[in-house]
Design a protein that fits this description.
18% strand; alpha/beta; Collagenase (Catalytic Domain); 204 residues; binds zinc ion
Length: 204
């Protein structure tokens, strides 16, 4: 999870070297009021951060009346992340903007919930654009689904980002570390193998 309205120590994220990119799908759905400008900014920033780690995202917009599209109706693929943006946190005192659902049986998780009001509050608190907060929240939660549970002391997987982190995020340089990026690629590659096996049950 990502708590937005909190300050912590200075973070410096290592610049990872991108390897051959591995495709992932990110389906975005939900009823929160997110402007096209915010969504475009978020997807552009998030794409750059993911690419820096060797992942190539394909965005599937299922918000509003696009939810009826075929790509939004089918079950999620193994290398697909389904992001639902809800209007507000059920707990008004919570500063958690995003939650990744990791199945208890250890299978790879795919579902992420993000709270639009929290994103806007975080943007206002740190005087940055909501697209930046949304991008970091999406990428951070994808990190939770591909990496081990828990947080890091620096970079985009910190539990609480401070003003310096958000300034880096705005410039698109709040990243995964090189070791995190390697683990991201390995986890995404493993999901691709599962997808291939599912499409071809005899393994051919
Ligand atoms: Zn987290």
């Amino acid at each position: 999870m990502l708590r937005v309205l909190a300050a912590a120590l200075l973070a410096v994220a290592a610049q990872p070297l991108a390897a051959r990119e591995i495709a992932i799908d990110i389906r975005v759905a939900g009823a929160a009021r997110i402007t096209s400008e915010t969504m475009d900014r978020a997807t552009a920033l998030a794409s750059n951060v993911l690419r820096a780690s060797g992942l190539e995202p394909r965005w599937i917009d299922c918000r509003g009346d696009r939810a009826a599209a075929e790509a939004c109706q089918r079950p999620g693929a193994s290398n697909e992340f389904i992001v639902t943006i809800l209007p507000a946190q059920p707990d008004p005192d919570s500063c958690v903007c995003g939650i990744a659902q990791r199945p208890l049986d250890g299978t790879p998780g795919s579902f992420i919930t993000i709270y639009g009001e929290c994103v806007r509050n975080g943007a206002n608190a740190f005087r940055i654009d909501a697209g930046t907060v949304l991008s970091v929240t999406i990428v951070h939660e994808i990190g939770h689904l591909l990496l081990q549970r828990g947080h890091a002391f620096a970079g985009i997987m910190r539990a609480r980002l401070d003003a310096v982190d958000w300034a880096r995020a705005e410039r698109g340089v709040l990243l995964f570390s090189s070791s995190q990026a390697a683990r991201l690629r390995a986890a995404a590659r493993a999901r691709q193998v599962v997808a291939a096996a599912t499409a071809s049950p005899d393994g051919s």
